[in-house]
Amino acid sequence: MTDDRDVLERLRAAVVIAVLRAPDAQRASGAVEALVEAGIGAVEITFTTPGAHEVIAWAQQRYADRVVIGAGTLTEPAQVEQAVAAGAHFLVSPGYRPHIADAMVNTGLLSMVGVLTPSEIMAVQERGDMTVTKLFPGSLGGPAYLRALRGPFPDMAFMPTGGVSPDNLGDWLDAGAIAVGAGSELCPTAAIAKERHEEIAQRAAAFLEAIKRRP
Questions:
Q1: Is the entire prediction scored with pTM above 0.90?
Q2: Catalytic pick from 76, 134, 198, 209?
Q3: Cα dihedral 31/11/205/135 (nearest 10)
Q4: List 44, 81, 185, 194, catalytic entry
Q5: Alpha-carbon torsion 86, 92, 94, 98, what sign?
Q6: Which of 23, 26, 141, 181 could be stapled to 161 by a disulfide with Cβ–Cβ 3.0 to 4.6 Å?
Q7: What share of the chain is helix, strand, coil (3-state, %, to 5)?
Q8: Which residues of the chain have pLDDT under 70?
Q9: Could you confirm whether 199 is annotated as catalytic?
Q10: Rounded to whole angstroms, how far apart are CA atoms 146 and 157?
Q11: Which residues are CB-contacts of 78 (< 8 A; sequence separation ≥ 6)?
C-alpha cells in the first residue's frame, strides 16, 4: 500500500498536477509520455477517458519512479476499485458524495474530493478523515477566493484546479495552495486528440519555468 503522506509530499514537490482528459487510451498514453519527458512530476488520469484504468496501469509500470500517477473524475465506487487495481497513487472526485468519499478513503490512498463553498468544506471536515480537497472550479473565485477560505479553514489543504496557468501559478501558491491541478492550460483537448506532443511539452516547460521563478 502506498503511504499517503509520502504521496502528498511528492505532490507538493511536483507543484503542478497535469489533469488529463483524452478521447481514448492510446492518445492518453502519448500525452502522459510527453508530460513525463518534459519534466512534469504528477499526472491525474480522469475516468472520463475511455480505458483510464489501463492508462494508469501502463503509466505505473513505465514511469512509477518518475511521476505520481492519480485517478480523477471518480464518480462511482466501481471506478475507485478499478483505479486501485490499476495502481493509482492518489484518488480525486470532482465533488463530494459520502459514499464515494467512503470508498476512496477506505482504500488507504491519498483521497481528495471537489469543494467550492464553505458548507461543502465543512461537510468534508466533519468526516475527520480527509485533510486535502480539490478546490473546483478554481476559475470561479481565483487566488483571492482561496485566500479568503484559508481564514476559516486553516487546517484544510487545498489543490485548486481550473483556471490555473503559468501566469497565475505564483498567485495560487501565495494564496495557500499546496499544489495545483492544470487541465486545458497544460493539456488542451485538441493537442491531445491530434497528438501534438510538442505543444504539450512546450506548455509543460512554461509551467516548470513558472515554478523556477518562485523565490
A1: yes
A2: 134
A3: 80
A4: 44
A5: positive
A6: 181
A7: 50, 15, 35
A8: 1-2
A9: no
A10: 10
A11: none
Segment 16-45, tens digit of pLDDT: 999 999 999 999 999 999 999 999 999 999
> How much is the pLDDT for 179?
98
Query: Distance (Å, rounded) from C-alpha 74 to C-alpha 2?
Result: 19
CATH number assigned to the domain with residue range 4-209, chosen from the 4 options 3.20.20.70, 3.40.50.2000, 3.40.1360.10, 3.40.1190.20: 3.20.20.70
Contact 43, 7 (CB under 8 A): no
Q: Give me 114's grid cell.
A: 471537489
- What would the pLDDT profile of 186-212 be if each residue is shown by its tens digit? 999 999 999 999 999 999 999 999 999
How many C-beta atoms surround the C-beta of residue 102 within 10 A?
14
198 is catalytic: no
Whether residue 137 is preceded by a cis peptide bond, meaning omega within 30 degrees of 0, is: yes
